[in-house]
Specification:
Layout lengths: L7 E8 L4 E9 L9 E7 L2 E2 L1 E3 L1 E3 L14 E2 L3 E2 L4 E9 L9 E8 L1
Antiparallel strand pairs: 1-9, 2-8, 2-10, 3-4, 3-6, 3-9, 5-7
């Protein structure tokens, strides 16, 4: 929760526990990034699922207030799909920390 985020690919990896249709995607942090936004990419089986990446604006703690909303391009997940999270930017003055993603949708 308090360790500064680092940029990189596959910062975390998990598998979908069941089929899922994604309707919204949100991010939040414990410490807000400052100096520049925090930018996150989500990948399913190695390919991005979003056209406009998920972001948390400078000084904010949630993606729900982002000036540019996330654009989901792949919304259908199968049981056991591998999901990886990339951190493309973390804030240039103060790095965000305590990143959490919320996948909103319905089990299929």
């Amino acid at each position: 929760e308090t360790t500064d985020l680092e940029t990189g690919t596959a910062i975390t990896t998990f598998r979908m526990p069941y089929g899922f249709t994604l309707t919204d995607l949100r991010a939040s942090v414990t410490t807000a990034p400052t100096g520049s936004p925090l930018i996150v990419d989500v990948n399913r089986n190695g390919a991005t699922i979003i056209n406009t990446k998920l972001s948390i604006d400078d000084g904010e703690k949630t993606s729900t207030t982002a000036a540019v909303p996330c654009d989901i391009t792949t919304s259908v997940f199968a049981d056991d799909d591998e999901i990886t999270i990339d951190v493309d930017a973390r804030g240039s003055t103060v790095a965000g920390s305590g990143l959490k993603l919320t996948f909103i949708g319905v089990q299929t």
